[in-house]
């Protein structure tokens, strides 16, 4: 399984970004796909997830600003980020695992990861 993220960059606070994740080689019909981020010096944390039924999960601190979406089934995953804040700075990674039910945002549950894309927000 390969996951490749794109869309990161440097933006000013209040701006928006759309991150993309392209998935290849995943052959199961059920899955959780999620976005995670890791700020400098901090642990990786879950941001938003979606499952094969279309159900979504968001971390409380991103609700209303982040939107996760997918198209073409498991092949493309997106994260729309609005009203970016400096504390949103970090490496954003997508991940996938074979699972059912509401997607978890615990990194330990995920099997396959992308390399990540850097998001830097300046004040």
The total count of helices amounts to: 0
Q: What quaternary form is this?
A: single chain
Describe the biggest sheet?
Answer: 7 strands, mixed
By secondary-structure content and strand pairing, the structural class works out as mainly beta
Q: Give start-end ranges of low-pLDDT stretches.
A: none
CA-atom Rg in angstroms: 13 Å
Q: How many angstroms does the end-to-end distance come to?
A: 37 Å
What is the share of helical residues?
under 10%
Q: List the secondary-structure elements in sequence, H or E.
A: EEEEEEEEEEE
Give the beta-strand count: 11
The whole-number mean of residue pLDDT values reads 96
Strand proportion, as a percent range, falls in: over 45%
* Spatial shape: globular
